[in-house]
Amino acid sequence: MYQAPAVPWPQTKRIAGGAVPSSSQDRPSRWCHGRAASFYTELEHPADLFLEIKGRDPAELLEHALFALFDQIVDLRTVRLVRRRTFSVREADLTLALRHTLTEALALFNLEGFLAAAAGVRWEGGEGTVGVVVTLWGENVDRSRHELQTEIKAVTYHRLLTEQTEPGAWRATILFDV
Amino acid sequence: MNADLDTAGIPPRLIPCNDVIWEIPATGDMRVPGRIYATKELLSSPGQSDVLAQVRNVATLPGIVRYSLAMPDIHFGYGFPIGGVAAFSVEDGVISPGGVGYDINCGVRLLATDLHREDIEPALKRTIDQLFRDIPAGVGSSGAIQKLSRRQLETICVRGAAWAVENGYGTPADLERTEAGGALPGADPSAVSERAFARGTDQVGTLGAGNHFLEVQVVEEIFDREAATAFGLAEGQITLMIHVGSRGFGYQICDDYLGVMGRAAAAYGIRLADRQLACSPVTSPEGRRYLAAMACAANYAWANRQMLMHLIEKALLRTLSLSPQALGLRLVYDVAHNIAKIEQHTVEGKAMTLCVHRKGATRAFGPQHPEVPAVYRSTGQPVLIPGDMGTASFVCKGTRQAMEETFGSTCHGAGRVMSRAQALKRARGRAIERELGEKGIVARAQGRKTLGEEMPEAYKDVEAVVGVMGRAGISPRVARLRPLGVIKG
Predict the structure, then answer these.
(1) From B193, B418, B448, residue closest to A147, measured CB to CB
(2) Rounded to an integer, what distance in angstroms lies between the CA atom of residue A117 and that of residue A114?
(3) Domains of chain B
(4) In this prediction, does ipTM exceed 0.90?
């Protein structure tokens, strides 16, 4: 009889969660203050959601991509920073790390109803790989205050790109299946 | 080839065979030609060059048979075009999660009733409001039924719609009128990730968001009386159409296996023109495992649509104060339009076992095919093609010609022509709900942006799309259904 092999699911390490501590060092490095729309642009695509993200460095690029993701799901001005979620991602390159980061953040929404309005991405070393520790601040969905807007099915590999366009300027494109 | 057709405005390297069939010759890495079903007008719509590049990319995959096919509702997808059909030899071909899509077994279910237009019109608004209350819809919608246990979910993975029927949510006749009997064989829950199970636990019986919908419709015109009678449809009759798939359960399975297939493609030395075309040989361990997981999601989707049918019946009985006999709700047919299936086809006189990918394409099996339900075997299977929410949807029928030309496949809808952002821009300052109301259509949506994104102008002309497949002899029209009420997520 056919024996299916084990599938190597993407490795994500969940590090911490729970309420936001009061210590200032645990506060987000970037809080979008409801300005997520200024960090990204929606590009033309007939069926799905195609976004261009910009940042000054790879960490900021990832943070802005996270804001863009949650900005499509909910009006970020309605999200309070009362809970924190942290996870780490390691991939072969920045582009895959971007997709993996967004996929993990989307899973937090899909599985726990977690909405983030602030993010901090910390770079971790690693030879030949890109490792990041992502901390998100926000709260769980409260239907009385949060109007959910777009159902994002997945972060696709299609037209997935990260590039440095000039010193101090990074750009990514991402296609969400909606 | 037809050299007399005017090809001005048509993308380059597209050769007309007749006024509705075009070919892209196999050049470069293409293993087979591309074949597109469309009129010149449909081909001239914006963005078609990008779409044709995707048709060409699919034609480069190993083991593809005869053509990389595109239906007239084709539009730009990720990797595979939406509205594409590709059949691969099981012996030396591949299977690709991107050729199925994230929403595995997204599909359409058509319900007929014994009600006529005049029976429902006085209560239309009340009926739509009740359905809107009772059918969970919108982003992350859940809670139609009690959260399912892991064991129940695993049973759904294997039994599909039969699970719902066995639990009192339908009748055995429903299974007979569902593609594949509402359950693909070979489903293996052990091939499904924990994350997929977690996402699927409370979404059976939900509509979701985006372009998914529930419509109350009236049969406006019959084109083929014999087939309409076989399908149980008559002018003035009230029908309901459900468009939804496998929800988060299927999205997660697709996502999990795109990663697996990306690594597998590299390991098997398959060159990919686009990362989203990630694939593996059908007979490889990865390919077989994806097929087993995909079958779980397909079966989940059939259980979902079966459950929704039950919720709809309950809501209608309550609102209209009718007995089940007076309502007469019954399933006409349920079709998948995002799926990969192992099927037998005759290719150039030779019987072949193929893995047929239909991504935004509907099965259209013709008369006497053993997989067509006995009640429809003399006509061919009903083909359900939803249009936009302001125009019409169509019931067509499968043909022998479809078996010969398109691996028994046809279009799946109108196909988007405008991005969501463009549609929202166009909708700014307009009240889409009121515009639909002026056409006699009651519309309700959970999301503020949904009606704008899904406005009728965002889609191609469904009459033109369906007309192409009729003229090509693939899926002639049987009936046109006009929307009276629409529920969107």
Answers:
(1) B448
(2) 10
(3) 15-488 (3.90.1860.10)
(4) no
